[in-house]
């Protein structure tokens, strides 16, 4: 166009951008990393949401961009790292065994906090079993729940459900039809119910001590709390959508590392 004239076909120069979608979050992340034009988006966010947007832009958008890039790199490098480990085991089994032995002796010492959680778990077990210890039926049930929580099927379902929900959320925009909004809400609700079920399975399988030692299970619990807050306030939480996307990325990274 003419000098000084705003381009009408450039998505970055639209007067209003929807920052409530995963896709625009990706675009903004790329713009921040490339240091190209992100100050205009910062001004638009601040004009739309007053002074609290300074905190939002600095912490959520900026830091979240760095975290997302690290997760992307982790997904890409996990498979190569696994292949390198296999090569070391094939080429020099004696050296590999020596390395594994050293790693096994580098476990951190048991802290008072861990002892407290183990004691707390034992009290819960005694309380649930009427102070007589778990019977054969309870042991079989617990073993079945543990196998289910550690199964490959649950991992595949978790990745699939999270990716489907993330895809539906990424299709949201300000002027989408009411019918489509209803479907987005249904899919999001189904995803969070699945996450809640997965957290309960892990809680029964590993106990409170095992759950609190897993940072990603705590991550899922925080996501559930944000979802409950979203439902109670009847608002759309941008941070919750970012959490769902991060969950999908870390599940893919864990799956690549396992293979």
From TrEMBL:
The chain crosses the membrane at residues 52-76, 183-204. InterPro entries: Ion_trans_dom, VDCC_alpha-1_subunit, Volt_channel_dom_sf. GO terms for biological process: calcium ion import across plasma membrane. It is a multi-pass membrane protein. It is found in: Membrane. Residues 14-83, 152-257 form the Ion transport domain. It comes from the Eukaryota. Pfam families: Ion_trans (PF00520). This is Ion transport domain-containing protein. PANTHER family: VOLTAGE-DEPENDENT CALCIUM CHANNEL TYPE A SUBUNIT ALPHA-1 (PTHR45628). Keywords: Calcium, Calcium channel, Calcium transport, Glycoprotein, Ion channel, Ion transport, Membrane, Transmembrane, Transmembrane helix, Transport, Voltage-gated channel. GO terms for cellular component: voltage-gated calcium channel complex. It comes from Eutreptiella gymnastica.
């Amino acid at each position: 166009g003419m000098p000084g004239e705003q381009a009408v076909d450039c998505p970055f120069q639209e007067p209003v951008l929807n920052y409530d979608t995963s896709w625009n979050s990706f675009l903004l992340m790329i713009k921040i990393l490339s240091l190209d034009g992100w100050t205009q988006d910062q001004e638009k966010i601040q004009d739309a949401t007053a002074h609290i947007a300074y905190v939002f832009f600095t912490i959520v958008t900026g830091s979240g961009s760095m975290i997302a890039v690290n997760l992307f790199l982790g997904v890409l490098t996990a498979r190569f790292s696994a292949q390198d480990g296999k090569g070391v085991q094939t080429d020099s089994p004696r050296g590999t065994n020596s390395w594994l032995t050293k790693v096994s002796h580098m476990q951190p010492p048991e802290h008072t906090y861990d002892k407290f959680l183990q004691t707390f778990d034992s009290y819960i077990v005694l309380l649930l079993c009427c102070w007589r210890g778990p019977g054969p039926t309870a042991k079989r049930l617990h073993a079945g729940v543990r196998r289910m929580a550690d199964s490959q099927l649950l991992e595949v379902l978790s990745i699939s459900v999270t990716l489907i929900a993330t895809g539906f959320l990424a299709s949201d925009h300000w002027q989408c039809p009411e019918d489509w909004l209803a479907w987005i809400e249904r899919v999001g609700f189904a995803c969070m119910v699945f996450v809640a079920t997965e957290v309960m399975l892990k809680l029964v399988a590993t106990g409170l001590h095992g759950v609190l030692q897993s940072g990603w299970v705590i991550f899922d619990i925080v996501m559930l709390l944000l979802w409950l807050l979203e439902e109670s306030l009847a608002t759309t939480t941008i941070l919750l959508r970012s959490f769902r996307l991060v969950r999908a990325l870390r599940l893919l990274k864990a799956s690549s590392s396992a293979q």
